[in-house]
Amino acid sequence: MHRRRLAEAMKEDLEYVDIATLTKIKMWYYNSKRILEKPASKQSPIRSRILIGKIGKRLQFRQQVIATAIVYFKRFYTKNSLRMTDPSLVAATCIYLACKIEECPQHIKHIITEMKNALANHGGFDYDTSKVAEFEFYLLEELEFYLIVYHPYRDLTLIAKDLKLEESNLQTAWFVINDSYRTDVCLLYAPHMIALAALYIICVVHAERTFTDTSGGGNIGSSNPGNLLDDNTANSIITHSTHSNMHLHAQLNNMASKRSPHHALNVEGHGINNRDMVQWFADLNVEMEEIIEITQEMLSLYNIWKDYGEENIPSMIKILKAKRVVDPSISHPQHNLLHESPLHAFNQQHIHPLQAAPMTSQPGHPAMQQ
Amino acid sequence: MENPNELPPMNMTEYKAKRDACRQRIDTKYDIIGFISSGTYGRVYKARSKNKDDGKEYAIKKFKPDKEGEAASYIGISQSACREIALCRELHHENIVELTEVLLQDKSIHMVFEYAEHDLLQIIGSFSHPERKLMSEYTIKSFLWQLLNGVAYLHANWVMHRDLKPANILVTANGVVKVGDLGLARLFYKPLQPLYNGDKVVVTIWYRAPELLLGSRHYTKAIDIWAIGCIFAELITLRPIFKGEEAKVENKKTVPFQKNQLQKIFDILGFPTKERWPAIDQQPEYPNLASFRQSPNVLRSLYQSWPIKSEHGCNLLQAMLEYDPLKRITAEEALNHPYFQEEPKPGMDSFAGQNVDLPLRRITVEDKDMRATAPAPKAHPGPPIKDDRNAKRPRVE
Known about the structure:
heterodimer, A: mainly alpha, Cyclin A, domain 1, 2 domains, 18 helices, about 0% strand, B: alpha+beta, Phosphorylase Kinase, domain 1, Transferase(Phosphotransferase), domain 1, 5-stranded antiparallel β-sheet, nucleus (chain B), metal ion binding (chain B), metal-binding (chain B), kinase (chain B), nucleotide-binding (chain B)
């Protein structure tokens, strides 16, 4: 998937609103999906810390479904404009299909009920079973029947095990990946690269933290689980963005050299030794530039996020949709351009889990041991 | 629009019209030659591409809309169709049936597969009727090797087939094995919940592994290997090795204990001792085993009464029919088994130099109307062999 195609897909919508607004509108839809997570997690109240492991597993499962649904949603909108379609129907159908593909099927009526609840104050959800099921056909076609989505979580878990990463750092990296679904990185980069970028971000944050805050807060971000990083962390990432054009290697080296032994100790206390990390990243046979690009993309998300206000979204959507009445003819010629060859255009940049990332390399699968 | 949060109504007519306009109809791309078979999922037709340069034949699997009637309505695509589409879209292997494309029409999904002239059920049938003639060891070994080759590919990609049986093993006119029907197949990489929670019953009873019969929640890809072991024996003797009678499902919540099927297995392989299968006492149905009498493993002496004499062949069969799923041979290991190193060596054309004369797949040419959703009329000539194994796939949704 190229940036150019992404830009093309947004062209029509962008004639009506600016890019930041569009991003915020899309974010709102990703968020409304998150609302759907809540009813299920209510069933497992946080009774005690002992249960965290279990809930975590449960979350992982929910997140994977949500992540798949978001990828479907994004792929759909690489070929269609928000203006021409109803994102709430698209979103509901994506969730319905993702549940089936992730092997935790939900009854279509259940999803419709949840959508109605989630959108109660935002125009409601006016579709019945047959409408969602009908749209499933369109969605399948738009996805070209490529339904298996490969997510960075798995790579992150493997890398974390490999590095013996501390739980809190794994958590933070995990949240960074959660956040990444609000950007387009999952369309543009391979999942293992996103996992590496998430790891890179927490390394940078750690180095930054130990400079500015020698007391070293232990659990970055974990106070705000499943959501954006806390302000502090986000800010420290943003302040760091000025540096991140530099080559990663040089940068990490730089940070490592500036650090006093005291700081180094402190960092090691978090389970991250930057000196080791420099070596570790250097030993990886991957495009470092690409990791930096992903990081940049994430940082700009945190920037937009700063002044994202949920209450403004409905009016933004109105602007996007309303102008169509004023001059409906504008959209037509352009639309045809975008959709000339729906079945051939969106080509092989889908993630092919069974090919691009062979699954054969991970030994000791849990199911095999049981 | 008094509520400031109210969004303008959105109308998708334009979008749908645009999409519908570029959708290609099946009859513009394919000539339907006739009807092949039907099952719980829907119907399969044989077709030929209208493209003269292609000239290949295809099998079009039409999933029936769940509610049949004059006005079929959309109620969502079945889990099994979803699985089959999702997996077939990604899997490409010589020994796995290839999905060419998926077409949506008349509220139904149509999966277009490469066509295979035969399947192992039909081949075994035509070797046993009207008169019994044995399959050559070369043919058996080639079928077995290619089957293992396809399944090794599935397993390497974390896909479990979960319904291997002769009817699902297709064979092309050129003797190439194509593993088909991935409607029950699924990914098993870090399952988010025990596989058992998704489907209570998998695999047709005669090919069902002992851990499944004993109610195991955490079964593994080893269940596919057990089924292949059963198929190997059936290719040699032309009869199912463990032809048990299925205990019927009485209510949807409980899965019946398959005593008769287990008895058939114990009659040949002996009673499963804790020594042979250390974790056997952890199987949910373990207490039920008390009602069986002890018996020895007679597989080896039984094998000696069969036409194939290879010692390695017997060892491989025993390894695939190992009680303990952890000790059971894997597809990858089986491919490297000494049995495949000795003559006759397996080949990609299982019929090469064999002078086999198999009947072609029976096609009902009168029945070309893909829009027909009602079951085939009674007078309809059935498939060449009565396919009682394929008729009902036990499954609890």
